[in-house]
Specification:
Blueprint (H helix, E strand, L loop, with lengths): L1 E7 L4 H8 L1 H9 L5 H4 E2 L2 E2 L1 E8 L2 E8 L6 H7 L8 E4 L1 H6 L5 E8 L2 E4 L9 E4 L3 H15 L1 E3 L9 E13 L2 E16 L2 H10 L12 E5 L8
Helix pairs in contact: 1-2
């Protein structure tokens, strides 16, 4: 597995198109892999996420089974004469994960549930959770089977901050798509190393093609940095 960071130049026309359409960004990420098994393999798939740490600063993070080539993104939405992208091997970190480790994490996800729109409806459909409390519980309910637990603060609350809560609307061909997304920052503790590795390489929740599901790690309380 590989972890890649690419800085987007939001002043460029190509960048504005990519940032306004998860479908367009998905296509651009997919185009970074000429071989299909570099994009997706059994047990691992390509995931991506946009982070905006400061005004006019946008990073694209990608985890992938194979090494990507982002030349087309540099030409369309980067700085072709001064910067490209940074790709690191992810497997060394994945191999060190074990129960008891604590990490700071970030995740952008699509917290959703299935249900019927009306009592008479025969087909179920997916609905996004829009309340912050529902979005928080969505992640907490899944954490155990994903191989981790969210740490607890001194006040007893989960060490979790939700931000960039929004609803995205865009087109997928002739069809409209609406997604509820939220970014989670917090501290976690690994409870099951194998399940947690599967979470990092396979993603969390739905809408993985549209920038959801990628969980990244950073050092917390002396742990080894993940990115």
């Amino acid at each position: 597995m590989f972890l890649t960071r690419f800085q987007i130049n939001p002043a460029r026309r190509g960048a504005r198109k990519l940032l306004s359409s998860p479908q367009a960004m998905h296509a651009a990420v997919r185009a970074a892999f000429p071989a299909s098994d570099d994009y997706e393999r059994p047990g691992s798939r390509t995931l991506w996420r946009l982070d905006t740490p400061a005004t006019a600063t946008v990073y694209l993070y990608i985890t992938s089974p194979g090494r990507p080539d982002l030349t087309h993104l540099v030409e369309q939405a980067g700085w072709p004469t001064t910067a490209t992208w940074d790709t690191r091997e992810y497997d060394p970190l994945l191999g060190t994960l074990q129960p008891g480790q604590r990490w700071a994490f970030r995740l952008t996800a699509n917290p959703a549930h299935s249900g019927r729109k009306t009592a008479e409806a025969k087909e179920t459909q997916r609905f996004g959770y829009v309340r912050e409390s529902e979005q928080e519980q969505w992640l907490l309910r899944r954490a155990t089977r994903l191989g981790f637990a969210v740490a607890t603060q001194r006040d007893g609350r989960p060490n979790l901050r939700l931000h960039h809560r929004r609803t995205l609307s865009f087109s997928r061909g002739a069809y409209p798509v609406t997604l509820t997304t939220v970014t989670y920052d917090g501290i976690l503790e690994v409870t099951d190393g194998e399940a947690f590795r599967a979470t990092l390489t396979g993603g969390i929740g739905h809408a993985k093609a549209y920038g959801c599901g990628l969980l990244t790690l950073a050092a917390a309380e002396g742990a080894t940095a993940g990115r």
